[in-house]
Amino acid sequence: RPEILIGHAHSIHFFTRYLIAHGIDDVRFASILSTAETLLPAERRDIEAHFGPVLFDRYGCEEVSLIASECDAHDGLHVAAEGLWVEVLGGDASTPGRVVVTDLINRGMPMLRYEVGDLATVASGPCSCGRGLPRLGRVFGRTTDILYTPAGAPVSGVSILDTFLIHIPGVKQAQIVQDSLDHVTLRLVPAESYGQPSLDHLHRALDDVFGPEMRRDFEVVDAIAPTARGKFQFSICELDPAQIPPA
Ligand SMILES: [Zn+2]
Protein backbone atom coordinates (compact mmCIF):
# COMPACT_ATOMS: atom_id res chain seq x y z
CA ARG A 1 0.00 0.00 0.00
CA PRO A 2 1.61 3.27 -1.10
CA GLU A 3 1.81 6.03 1.48
CA ILE A 4 2.00 8.92 -0.93
CA LEU A 5 -0.24 9.66 -3.89
CA ILE A 6 1.11 12.01 -6.56
CA GLY A 7 -1.15 13.07 -9.39
CA HIS A 8 -2.70 15.71 -11.57
CA ALA A 9 -5.21 17.77 -9.58
CA HIS A 10 -8.26 16.70 -11.58
CA SER A 11 -7.20 13.05 -11.67
CA ILE A 12 -6.92 13.01 -7.87
CA HIS A 13 -10.34 14.59 -7.68
CA PHE A 14 -11.85 11.98 -10.04
CA PHE A 15 -10.14 9.23 -8.06
CA THR A 16 -11.60 10.61 -4.82
CA ARG A 17 -15.08 10.71 -6.32
CA TYR A 18 -14.64 7.14 -7.56
CA LEU A 19 -13.72 5.92 -4.07
CA ILE A 20 -16.72 7.71 -2.56
CA ALA A 21 -19.13 6.45 -5.25
CA HIS A 22 -18.00 2.85 -4.72
CA GLY A 23 -17.94 3.05 -0.93
CA ILE A 24 -14.21 2.26 -0.79
CA ASP A 25 -13.03 3.64 2.52
CA ASP A 26 -9.79 1.79 3.26
CA VAL A 27 -7.59 3.54 0.69
CA ARG A 28 -5.72 6.19 2.68
CA PHE A 29 -2.51 8.15 2.23
CA ALA A 30 -0.04 9.88 4.55
CA SER A 31 0.09 12.67 2.00
CA ILE A 32 -1.27 13.53 -1.42
CA LEU A 33 0.70 15.74 -3.81
CA SER A 34 -1.31 17.59 -6.40
CA THR A 35 0.69 18.77 -9.36
CA ALA A 36 0.68 19.74 -13.05
CA GLU A 37 -2.79 21.31 -13.06
CA THR A 38 -4.47 24.12 -11.16
CA LEU A 39 -6.06 22.69 -8.03
CA LEU A 40 -9.48 24.28 -7.69
CA PRO A 41 -10.79 25.21 -4.21
CA ALA A 42 -13.87 23.03 -4.78
CA GLU A 43 -11.65 20.06 -5.66
CA ARG A 44 -9.53 20.65 -2.58
CA ARG A 45 -12.64 20.68 -0.40
CA ASP A 46 -13.82 17.34 -1.81
CA ILE A 47 -10.40 15.69 -1.54
CA GLU A 48 -9.78 16.91 2.02
CA ALA A 49 -13.30 16.01 3.12
CA HIS A 50 -12.53 12.42 2.17
CA PHE A 51 -8.82 12.04 2.98
CA GLY A 52 -8.32 14.66 5.68
CA PRO A 53 -5.81 17.54 5.63
CA VAL A 54 -3.09 15.59 3.80
CA LEU A 55 -3.26 17.39 0.46
CA PHE A 56 -0.27 19.46 -0.67
CA ASP A 57 -0.34 21.51 -3.84
CA ARG A 58 2.83 21.84 -5.90
CA TYR A 59 3.69 24.00 -8.84
CA GLY A 60 6.40 23.37 -11.38
CA CYS A 61 7.18 23.24 -15.06
CA GLU A 62 9.12 20.95 -17.36
CA GLU A 63 12.05 23.36 -17.82
CA VAL A 64 13.04 23.97 -14.19
CA SER A 65 11.06 21.25 -12.39
CA LEU A 66 9.66 22.24 -8.98
CA ILE A 67 8.96 25.97 -8.60
CA ALA A 68 6.91 26.15 -5.39
CA SER A 69 5.12 23.87 -2.96
CA GLU A 70 2.77 24.07 -0.01
CA CYS A 71 3.89 23.50 3.56
CA ASP A 72 1.58 22.15 6.25
CA ALA A 73 0.22 25.64 6.89
CA HIS A 74 -1.50 25.27 3.46
CA ASP A 75 -1.32 29.02 2.99
CA GLY A 76 0.27 29.64 -0.38
CA LEU A 77 3.22 27.86 -1.98
CA HIS A 78 6.82 28.34 -0.81
CA VAL A 79 9.14 29.14 -3.71
CA ALA A 80 12.10 26.76 -4.10
CA ALA A 81 14.32 29.84 -3.74
CA GLU A 82 17.44 27.80 -2.90
CA GLY A 83 17.86 27.17 -6.61
CA LEU A 84 15.41 29.47 -8.36
CA TRP A 85 14.78 33.18 -8.65
CA VAL A 86 11.05 33.64 -9.22
CA GLU A 87 9.42 36.90 -10.30
CA VAL A 88 5.70 37.60 -10.72
CA LEU A 89 5.53 40.43 -13.24
CA GLY A 90 2.68 42.86 -12.71
CA GLY A 91 1.25 40.74 -9.90
CA ASP A 92 0.65 41.28 -6.20
CA ALA A 93 -1.41 39.68 -3.43
CA SER A 94 -4.70 40.16 -5.28
CA THR A 95 -3.78 40.62 -8.96
CA PRO A 96 -2.26 37.65 -10.83
CA GLY A 97 0.96 38.42 -12.68
CA ARG A 98 3.15 36.52 -15.16
CA VAL A 99 5.51 33.96 -13.63
CA VAL A 100 9.16 34.39 -14.71
CA VAL A 101 11.90 32.06 -13.44
CA THR A 102 15.69 32.13 -13.42
CA ASP A 103 17.42 28.83 -12.72
CA LEU A 104 20.40 29.41 -10.38
CA ILE A 105 21.90 25.93 -10.43
CA ASN A 106 21.50 24.69 -14.00
CA ARG A 107 24.92 25.34 -15.55
CA GLY A 108 24.34 23.10 -18.54
CA MET A 109 21.48 25.13 -19.97
CA PRO A 110 20.82 28.22 -17.87
CA MET A 111 17.31 29.67 -18.06
CA LEU A 112 17.41 33.41 -17.48
CA ARG A 113 14.12 35.19 -16.77
CA TYR A 114 12.18 32.48 -18.57
CA GLU A 115 8.46 33.22 -18.83
CA VAL A 116 6.65 30.02 -17.95
CA GLY A 117 3.31 31.18 -19.37
CA ASP A 118 1.43 30.88 -16.07
CA LEU A 119 -0.26 33.46 -13.88
CA ALA A 120 0.07 33.63 -10.09
CA THR A 121 -0.48 35.95 -7.15
CA VAL A 122 2.14 36.68 -4.49
CA ALA A 123 1.56 35.91 -0.80
CA SER A 124 2.76 38.68 1.50
CA GLY A 125 4.21 38.45 5.01
CA PRO A 126 5.82 35.49 6.77
CA CYS A 127 4.27 32.02 6.75
CA SER A 128 3.05 30.63 10.07
CA CYS A 129 5.25 27.54 9.53
CA GLY A 130 8.36 29.68 10.17
CA ARG A 131 10.08 29.00 6.84
CA GLY A 132 11.58 32.13 5.33
CA LEU A 133 11.12 31.12 1.70
CA PRO A 134 8.93 33.57 -0.25
CA ARG A 135 5.50 32.35 -1.27
CA LEU A 136 3.20 32.41 -4.24
CA GLY A 137 -0.44 32.91 -3.28
CA ARG A 138 -2.41 31.12 -5.93
CA VAL A 139 -1.39 29.76 -9.31
CA PHE A 140 -3.98 30.37 -12.01
CA GLY A 141 -2.54 28.31 -14.82
CA ARG A 142 -1.72 29.25 -18.34
CA THR A 143 -1.95 32.77 -19.66
CA THR A 144 -3.41 31.15 -22.80
CA ASP A 145 -6.41 30.11 -20.67
CA ILE A 146 -7.48 33.75 -20.48
CA LEU A 147 -10.76 34.61 -22.18
CA TYR A 148 -12.20 38.06 -22.91
CA THR A 149 -15.51 39.83 -22.49
CA PRO A 150 -17.00 41.36 -25.66
CA ALA A 151 -15.66 44.69 -24.35
CA GLY A 152 -12.16 43.18 -24.23
CA ALA A 153 -11.70 42.77 -20.46
CA PRO A 154 -9.64 39.66 -19.59
CA VAL A 155 -11.26 36.87 -17.58
CA SER A 156 -9.24 33.98 -16.16
CA GLY A 157 -10.74 30.76 -17.51
CA VAL A 158 -9.90 28.82 -14.37
CA SER A 159 -11.65 31.36 -12.18
CA ILE A 160 -14.80 31.03 -14.33
CA LEU A 161 -15.01 27.30 -13.79
CA ASP A 162 -13.97 27.67 -10.21
CA THR A 163 -16.55 30.35 -9.52
CA PHE A 164 -19.58 28.82 -11.08
CA LEU A 165 -19.25 26.00 -13.56
CA ILE A 166 -18.26 23.47 -10.95
CA HIS A 167 -21.45 24.24 -9.03
CA ILE A 168 -23.88 23.93 -11.95
CA PRO A 169 -26.46 21.23 -11.21
CA GLY A 170 -26.43 18.38 -13.71
CA VAL A 171 -23.02 19.10 -15.22
CA LYS A 172 -20.18 16.65 -14.63
CA GLN A 173 -17.52 18.43 -16.61
CA ALA A 174 -17.34 21.53 -18.73
CA GLN A 175 -15.04 23.31 -21.11
CA ILE A 176 -15.39 26.78 -22.54
CA VAL A 177 -14.04 27.74 -25.96
CA GLN A 178 -13.95 31.32 -27.22
CA ASP A 179 -13.70 31.71 -30.99
CA SER A 180 -14.55 35.38 -31.31
CA LEU A 181 -14.73 38.33 -28.96
CA ASP A 182 -18.50 37.96 -28.63
CA HIS A 183 -18.98 34.19 -28.91
CA VAL A 184 -18.22 31.18 -26.71
CA THR A 185 -19.06 27.50 -26.97
CA LEU A 186 -19.64 25.59 -23.76
CA ARG A 187 -18.96 21.85 -23.97
CA LEU A 188 -20.81 19.93 -21.29
CA VAL A 189 -20.66 16.38 -20.03
CA PRO A 190 -24.13 15.93 -18.54
CA ALA A 191 -24.92 14.13 -15.30
CA GLU A 192 -28.24 12.32 -14.81
CA SER A 193 -29.87 15.42 -13.38
CA TYR A 194 -29.01 17.55 -16.44
CA GLY A 195 -31.94 19.59 -17.74
CA GLN A 196 -33.42 23.04 -18.32
CA PRO A 197 -32.46 24.26 -14.81
CA SER A 198 -28.82 23.50 -15.67
CA LEU A 199 -29.10 25.63 -18.82
CA ASP A 200 -30.84 28.48 -16.98
CA HIS A 201 -28.08 28.43 -14.40
CA LEU A 202 -25.39 28.47 -17.11
CA HIS A 203 -27.00 31.40 -18.93
CA ARG A 204 -27.11 33.43 -15.72
CA ALA A 205 -23.50 32.58 -14.95
CA LEU A 206 -22.32 33.55 -18.44
CA ASP A 207 -24.27 36.81 -18.18
CA ASP A 208 -22.54 37.54 -14.88
CA VAL A 209 -19.04 36.88 -16.15
CA PHE A 210 -19.14 38.03 -19.78
CA GLY A 211 -22.30 40.16 -19.94
CA PRO A 212 -25.53 39.32 -21.79
CA GLU A 213 -24.07 40.46 -25.12
CA MET A 214 -21.79 37.39 -25.18
CA ARG A 215 -23.37 34.94 -27.65
CA ARG A 216 -23.14 31.33 -26.55
CA ASP A 217 -23.74 27.80 -27.80
CA PHE A 218 -23.97 24.66 -25.72
CA GLU A 219 -22.58 21.38 -26.93
CA VAL A 220 -23.45 18.24 -24.99
CA VAL A 221 -20.69 15.64 -25.33
CA ASP A 222 -19.88 12.22 -23.82
CA ALA A 223 -16.41 13.20 -22.69
CA ILE A 224 -13.92 16.03 -22.89
CA ALA A 225 -10.55 14.81 -24.08
CA PRO A 226 -7.44 15.89 -22.18
CA THR A 227 -4.62 17.60 -24.05
CA ALA A 228 -1.85 15.53 -25.64
CA ARG A 229 0.07 15.83 -22.36
CA GLY A 230 -2.79 14.40 -20.32
CA LYS A 231 -3.94 17.65 -18.78
CA PHE A 232 -7.50 18.83 -18.63
CA GLN A 233 -7.97 22.25 -20.19
CA PHE A 234 -10.92 24.27 -18.88
CA SER A 235 -10.81 27.19 -21.21
CA ILE A 236 -9.50 27.50 -24.72
CA CYS A 237 -8.94 30.87 -26.31
CA GLU A 238 -9.07 30.59 -30.10
CA LEU A 239 -9.04 34.32 -30.71
CA ASP A 240 -6.69 35.63 -33.33
CA PRO A 241 -4.07 37.67 -31.40
CA ALA A 242 -5.10 40.67 -33.53
CA GLN A 243 -8.61 40.43 -32.01
CA ILE A 244 -7.32 40.68 -28.45
CA PRO A 245 -7.34 44.26 -27.20
CA PRO A 246 -4.03 45.51 -25.75
CA ALA A 247 -3.84 45.18 -21.95
ZN1 LIG B 1 4.94 27.69 5.32
Care to describe what's here?
The chain is α/β, with parallel strands linked by helices and 247 residues long. The chain has helices spanning 9-21, 41-51, 157-163, 196-210; strands spanning 4-8, 31-35, 55-61, 65-69, 77-79, 84-89, 97-103, 114-123, 135-142, 146-148, 154-156, 171-180, 183-190, 215-220, 235-237. It is globular. α1 packs across α2 (41-51). The chain is built from four helices and 15 strands. The mean pLDDT is 88. The chain has three domains: 1-53, no CATH class; 75-143, no CATH class; 149-243, GMP Synthetase, Chain A, domain 3, CATH 3.30.300. Zinc ion (ZN) binds at residues 71, 73, 78, 127, 129, 131. Zinc ion binds next to loops.
Topology:
Layout: E1 4-8, H1 9-21, E2 31-35, H2 41-51, E3 55-61, E4 65-69, E5 77-79, E6 84-89, E7 97-103, E8 114-123, E9 135-142, E10 146-148, E11 154-156, H3 157-163, E12 171-180, E13 183-190, H4 196-210, E14 215-220, E15 235-237
Parallel strand pairs: 1-2, 2-3, 12-15, 13-14
Antiparallel strand pairs: 3-4, 4-5, 5-9, 6-7, 7-8, 8-9, 10-11, 12-13
The chain binds zinc ion.
Structure at a glance:
The chain is of the alpha/beta class and 247 residues long.
Bound molecules: zinc ion
Distance between the termini: 50 Å
> What CATH architecture label of the largest domain applies?
2-Layer Sandwich
Count structural domains: 3
- Output the number of helix runs: 4
